[in-house]
Amino acid sequence: MTSRSKIGRTGNHPDLLAGLIFIVVGALGLWGGRDLRMGSAAMMGPGYLPLIVSGLIVLIGLGVTIMGLLRSNEPLEVVRLRPLLIILLAIAGFAYAAGSLGFIIAVAWLIGVGSLADPETRLREVAASIVVLTIFGILVFILGLGVQMQLGPF
């Protein structure tokens, strides 16, 4: 038996898939920033951070892929579409609401709708998460980093 056929039967398929996704995302980042000036560590250009982060993502993907090849066989589970679609809806709603309805409503939407993806979510936990993460987001992004975003439609 060759090592290639052994790897094909013993690979951890979820890790292999995750590693390949990391590699593709990192490669897209490298490709997207290919025309940006790199600069140096002392004088970073606009392409410096995207190149470093994308390169790290590719390296992480390679590591996860290699570990997936070395681990025991684990099949892929069936993709559950409902949670995936709910999360996509939550993110799309946040993107829309952030521009037109303000940060507070957008974060409440993101957390409230996103929590519907987990059938074991409790209303009290969702409410607490909305309050805490909204305050945290206002402090960090709007006040701390100076992101120009209205707090609400008011």
Automatic annotation (TrEMBL):
The keyword Amino-acid biosynthesis does not apply. Residues 17-149 form the DUF1468 domain. It comes from the Bacteria. It comes from Microvirga lotononidis. InterPro entries: DUF1468 (IPR009936). The chain crosses the membrane at residues 12-31, 51-72, 84-111, 126-147. The keyword Metal-binding does not apply. This is Tripartite tricarboxylate transporter TctB family. It holds the Pfam family TctB. Keywords: Membrane, Transmembrane, Transmembrane helix.
